[in-house]
Amino acid sequence: MKNNPLDNTNIKLKNTKLLVALSLILVFIGGLLPVAVEAVEASLFFSPSSGNYQVGDTFSVKVKVNSDGVPINAAQAKIFFPQNILEVKNISKAGSIFTLWPEEPIFSNSNGEIGFKGGVPAPGFTGEGNILTINFQARKIGEAKVSFSEAEVLAADGRGTNILKIAQEATFSITEIPLEIVKVPASPKISSPTHPKENFWYSNPNPEFQWEISSDIIGINYGLDENPFSIPEVISKKVESSKSFEGIKDGIWYFHLRVQNKIGWSNTSHYKIQTDTAPPHSFDVIVDNQGDPTNPRPFLYFETEDDLSGISHYEIRIGEGDIFSLVIAETNPLHLPHQAPGSYDILVKAIDKAGNSEKSSALLDVESIPIPEISVYPKTYIAGGEVFYVAGTVPADLTVIIFFEKEGKLIKTWETKSDKDGDWSFSTSELFKSGNYLISARSRDQRGAISHSSPRYQVKVILAGISIGPLIITYQTLFLILMILILLITVIVVYLISSKTKKLRKETQEAAQSLKDTFNNLREETIKRIEYLDSKPGLNPEEEKLRDELIDILEKSEEEVAKEIEDIKKELR
């Protein structure tokens, strides 16, 4: 370094008046009374104070203070280290006991010096604490002594007394890495964000390669060619962790990379990429209906090639239908799915393994088979009151599909077959909600070919019943349901009355027995109470008379109640 930041601060570091003034200010702010500092042995020291490291290693050394039980509020020092053996990477104040820094910690690797000056407000700090953390890197073999100079530790005693007695030094031994454990770097692991899989084809001609670089790497050597085992010759001017290329030609390429540390070069790593930017060859699509214009499943012929990556698959779309994919084995010829009569644009796209594509198209025409004729249909249909009947003609042995629609929504379909004379008919008693409907028909043959739709005819539906949401009920059905409900309610009422009568009989019998038991208990209790009145055994004539009168009352009451219960029993029989 041409300019040593410590050169401009040497006078400041030597001048302790500033630090003393800081100490007095901190004491004044805190209102701390002077304390006795006689026989105090405060110390500055390094932790760790020794260690063995190898060239290239980084290690941390803490600068610490011990106040020997006396509060302190400031400290300063110069620290010297052998700049040819050690190098300061950085200095950290994290975890420091000081929060005030009249001058931030500074260092000079060219002079091997570190300086700091810091403090803490009242009531100061007492005990052992960390001031700084120095992060060194070992540069060269040797013994590195790290020591303090011009150090002071000021007590928080109102006078800024320097109580530093001990400033310990540290010694670190730096050795070379033993040759027996030194190795050339491992072969680098290569990846590619643009061509992530080596055995896949890509249409991107601008490949990028990435790899990791460890701290001991001092050089890299790379190359890109079509030889899978080349040793790279291009030496990078700087240590890089990625490399990009633009506009390479189509084909299979190999990226080669090796890295170097101070021991030597690694083995070469190879990474394969496959690029193909050209689409497949152009081709034609041929429709073959085998001479039958009504054929609902014609054959489709198409095939092409790709010079480099090869054909991956085909994508086909018929008219406005969905796109479906086919592998090569499913083509030539392709038996199309059933198609309704009409004209369709067929689009075929050939896609190679790199994602490039080539399109071709053809027109497919499918003619209609004979359309059914509807000759009989009900202009008005009373649902729930009559049979729905429809009939017509069509060539023999065809399936007739009948469509029943309302307001553009298909409500129902039925199927029937024409006889040998071409006549067909269909009947049903199904229920529908009231409204205006349209009826039409199509024919279908044994191949699955279908016709165009017949004309639509209007049918007015009148529901002989009611509809509750999706539920449709005729008046006859509704009447039957009501009769069943009435019958069911009658049965339930009769059953409940019968059950109630049986229950009353049972409860009456239980009441009679309970009454009998109650009067017996009253007789016994009456006699006991009369005997208790004069506290003598037996009854005198007056007591006997009272007893007889009470029992007579009880018996009459019992007879009257029993008669009422018997009347209830007769009513329940």
What's the SSE blueprint?
Layout: H1 10-14, H2 17-30, E1 42-47, E2 50-54, E3 58-66, E4 72-80, E5 86-92, E6 100-108, E7 113-119, E8 128-138, E9 142-155, E10 164-167, E11 170-175, E12 201-202, E13 208-210, E14 219-225, E15 234-235, E16 242-244, E17 251-260, E18 269-275, E19 286-288, E20 299-301, E21 311-318, E22 324-326, E23 334-335, E24 342-352, E25 357-366, E26 373-376, E27 380-383, E28 388-393, E29 399-406, E30 409-417, E31 423-428, E32 435-444, E33 457-463, E34 465-468, E35 471-474, H3 475-534, H4 541-572
Parallel strand pairs: 1-10, 2-11, 12-18, 27-33
Antiparallel strand pairs: 1-3, 3-8, 4-7, 4-9, 5-8, 6-7, 9-11, 13-16, 14-15, 14-17, 17-18, 19-20, 20-23, 21-22, 21-24, 24-25, 26-28, 28-31, 29-30, 29-32, 32-33, 34-35
Helix pairs in contact: 3-4
Q: How would you portray this structure in words?
A:
The chain has 573 residues and is an alpha+beta fold. It has 5 domains: 7-180, Immunoglobulin-like (Sandwich), CATH 2.60.40; 201-275, Immunoglobulin-like, CATH 2.60.40; 286-366, Immunoglobulin-like; 373-463, Immunoglobulin-like (Sandwich), CATH 2.60.40.2550; 477-572, no CATH class. Helices cover 19% and strands 39% of the residues. It is built from 4 helices and 35 strands. It has helices at 10-14, 17-30, 475-534, 541-572, and strands spanning 42-47, 50-54, 58-66, 72-80, 86-92, 100-108, 113-119, 128-138, 142-155, 164-167, 170-175, 201-202, 208-210, 219-225, 234-235, 242-244, 251-260, 269-275, 286-288, 299-301, 311-318, 324-326, 334-335, 342-352, 357-366, 373-376, 380-383, 388-393, 399-406, 409-417, 423-428, 435-444, 457-463, 465-468, 471-474. The strands form 9 sheets. The protein has a 6-stranded mixed beta sheet with strand order 2-11-9-4-7-6. A hairpin with a 2-residue loop joins strand 29 (399-406) and strand 30.
